[in-house]
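Sanity check

After download, print the first record. It should look like this:
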Amino acid sequence: VRLDGWQAPQPLRVVLDGRARSPAGARAFDAQAPSLALVAPEARAGALRRAGVSVVEVQTGADGHLDPQAVLAALWERGVRSALLEGGPTVISAFIARGCYERVVVHVAPLLLGERGRPAVFGGPPTLAAAPRLVLDGVEQVGGDAVLQLTRQGD
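Expected structure tokens:
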């Protein structure tokens, strides 16, 4: 989503798709902005390539998912120096667990979701002492949501 009159170049859209299951015609790959699909080396990405999608193979971790450090290294090699990560609990948790973040912005809606007894993000540290430390930089209300802005505290 862009503001009316937006004149700056569109950011690179990066799709983390380890198994190359995204449809080549997906909106993320349209001509409105440059796009890149990051896939596992064993993924069958032929349909994406034939559709003209830029595809880069990235190593997976022990869990079989794309390794966050390999993802960031691939982006760095392409000149990307800043990234906004949006995703579900698996992607977000992987980046947090590997320490691959500097800042966290959390949108909290006045809804209770998720499976019983399961954390929504990061699976949780083994102890409180092992929990990542964040500094609260700001809180604002956006519509009915609260937005927390947090910065990773030095390790």
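If your output differs, re-run the checksum step. Summary of this record's structure: The chain has three helices and six strands.
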